Structures are given as C-alpha cells and as structure tokens.
C-alpha cells in the first residue's frame, strides 16, 4: 500500500534526523550522481489531508504554489494531449535585467484515495540544456489536522549547465550553502560546514518549493488578490526562517517583483 510505504518512510526518520539542519519537522535528502541531481523533502504539514489533497490535485493551485518561488516569473495552465500542462517562465531575481526560460511540465495525477495522493510533473528540457525534470508530491494523513508529505525534485545536467553553475558558484554564488551538514566544527573558524556547489543549489530550490506549498495551504480565505498577497508574505516569512541559505531579497523587493510578474501575466497577449 502506498500510504503504508510513505508512513514507513516517516517511521525510519528519527526525531533528530527529522529536525536536522532546518529547525522544523522536515527531513531533506540530496544526491548527485551520473549527471543527475536529486532532492527529497519529507515533512509534517499542520494541515488536514483533504486540504493538501485538494491543492495538489488542481493544476491551477499547483501553478500558484510554484509561482511563489522567487525565480518563477509566471505559471500558466493549459490542456495537453494527456492532461494539464504547466508552462513556467523561470529566471534569476530582478529578471527584467536578465534572461528567462520557459519550461513545460506535464501534470499527471497518480493514485488518489482517502488516505494517499500521488501527483507527478515532468518536463523534457530546461535551461542550459538540462533535461528530464521530475517533480513528485506524495501525501498521506497523520490525523485529522496533520499530513505527512514527500516532495521530490530531480533533473539531469550536461556540460553547459555544469560550466554555468561553476561560474555562478565562483562569483555571485560563492558564499551560498545548502542544508546538509558536511562536517561539525571543522572550518577554519571552527564553525559547522554545510554542503555547497550544485547540491547546495538543489537543496535551496527544493526547500523553496516545499515552503511554497506550506505557505499556500496555510492561507485559505479572501479574494483572489488578497489570497495571493497573503501567500506571498507567508512564503517570504517561512524562507526568512532560514536566512543563511535562502535570503535573496527584502520583503518589499520580493513583493514588488511578484506584483510586476502578476501584472505581466494579466496583461493581454500581444
């Protein structure tokens, strides 16, 4: 049974492991091998399973979840040959000064029952000749008010992406870190060391996407504009709990960028 397997995974995580590195009931794994990066978050959401399931079964809701990420400039839903498609425009912060890329994810609802949900998104290609993107959401109820969630994110990269990442990590990204502890107190200043490089970048993105789902499900009433504003603020507040890894913009900067993105999305096509 898928629900039993997911709960077994939860049972295998000790309280110390579940809390490691992030100060919350979240466990994050990441791996890099054979030009493939994989990241997984296992977390306890303080939301009923019915609420989480309703969000993840809706392509429009998933699109809005992904949009909260500061690097997603827009997300639009359309009909594909076998189901919904999500077209994302992604780019660096302050994207008006840089290049953005479009990615098309096919969304597939797998198992959907009273005690388990599986939703997968896949994209054949991404920026800089990256490929084979896959996002997976799994959820099962813990009790009437809590849900256990698995969020998985994987993709493949080639020489171009590797070169671009190394350039970024040697310049603007040279001080950025992930969440996995690589060694305790072994740095030159005696501080704990965290994963860097490609894995560190992946972990930051995985956490931002997980926190987007947490922010989205935490806000449930109001007009569409008020809901979006509240969810943007909730996402920013959640990421600011991990400023060392996730801080990029001040609140006003983030909100202004997202408001500009929303205005472009609402503008008539030329």
Key phrases:
single chain; 270 residues; alpha+beta; Alpha-D-Glucose-1,6-Bisphosphate, Chain A, domain 4; 8-stranded antiparallel β-sheet; two-stranded antiparallel sheet
Give a structural overview:
This protein is an alpha+beta fold and 270 residues long. The protein has helices spanning 2-11, 15-19, 49-56, 59-67, 159-170, 197-218, 224-239, 243-246, 251-266, and strands at 26-33, 36-45, 72-79, 84-91, 100-112, 117-125, 131-143, 146-156, 181-183, 193-194. Strands 1-2-8-7-6-5-4-3 form an 8-stranded antiparallel beta sheet, with helices on both faces. It has a two-stranded antiparallel sheet with strand order 9-10. A hairpin with a 4-residue loop joins strand 3 and strand 4. The protein starts with a helix and ends with a helix.
CATH architecture: 2-Layer Sandwich
The gross shape turns out to be globular
| Overall pLDDT | 88
From the 3D structure, determine the CATH topology: Alpha-D-Glucose-1,6-Bisphosphate, Chain A, domain 4
Secondary-structure element order, as H and E? HHEEHHEEEEEEHEEHHHH
Counting DSSP E segments of at least 2 residues, the number of strands comes to 10
User: How much helicity do the residues have?
Assistant: 25-40%
CATH homolog superfamily: START domain
